[in-house]
């Protein structure tokens, strides 16, 4: 089954292997994409439920309505910011719609503090990802994922 996910932030989309953090680059948490953000609003990639917003707000776990688990990781080592620069827009265990804003991030602050703002959208339930199907549609990038 093919399923489309909206990328979680507007920006330049790259293969996750380009990530400066080896854990992500080696796909230890799953495959996905890296996005160099050009906006400060993180959106839900799908219709689903917020499983967990980490206490430091740098990571969000979502379960799609079809059972695909997605981890949104905002920035590299931004856990060290302890939530500064992050405004949580949703609570745990709430339903969300595709493209619904879920976090506001002050990426200028992230950069000022010396952190890489690269944002990862990782499919932790490990569906087969067809990255060749990255399409630009109306200034939004869409990732098409084939679930096994």
TrEMBL record:
Q: Does the keyword Zinc apply?
A: no
Identify the PROSITE patterns for this entry.
Answer: PTS_EIIA_TYPE_1 (PS51093), PTS_EIIA_TYPE_1_HIS (PS00371)
Looking up InterPro entries in the UniProt record yields: Dup_hybrid_motif (IPR011055), PTS_EIIA_1_perm (IPR001127), PTS_EIIA_component (IPR050890)
| Predominant cellular place of this UniProt entry's protein | cytoplasm
For this UniProt entry, the molecular function terms from Gene Ontology, in alphabetical order, are: kinase activity
Recite the UniProt keywords alphabetically: Kinase, Phosphotransferase system, Sugar transport, Transferase, Transport
What the entry lists under NCBIfam families is as follows:
PTBA
* Protein name in the entry: PTS glucose transporter subunit IIA
Q: What high-level taxonomic lineage is stated for the organism?
A: Bacteria, Bacillati, Bacillota, Erysipelotrichia, Erysipelotrichales
């Amino acid at each position: 089954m093919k399923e489309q996910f909206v990328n979680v932030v507007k920006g330049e989309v790259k293969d996750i292997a380009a990530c400066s953090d080896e854990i992500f680059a080696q796909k230890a948490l799953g495959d996905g994409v890296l996005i160099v953000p050009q906006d400060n609003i993180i959106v839900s990639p799908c219709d689903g439920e917020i499983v967990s917003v980490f206490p430091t707000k740098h990571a969000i776990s979502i379960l799609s309505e079809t059972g695909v688990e997605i981890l949104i990781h905002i920035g590299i080592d931004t856990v060290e910011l302890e939530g500064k620069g992050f405004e949580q827009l949703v609570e745990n265990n709430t339903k969300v719609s595709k493209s619904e804003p879920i976090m506001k991030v002050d990426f200028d602050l992230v950069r000022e503090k010396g952190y890489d703002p690269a944002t990862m959208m990782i499919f932790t339930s490990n569906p087969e990802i067809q990255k060749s199907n990255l399409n630009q549609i109306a200034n939004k990038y869409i990732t098409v994922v084939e679930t096994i």
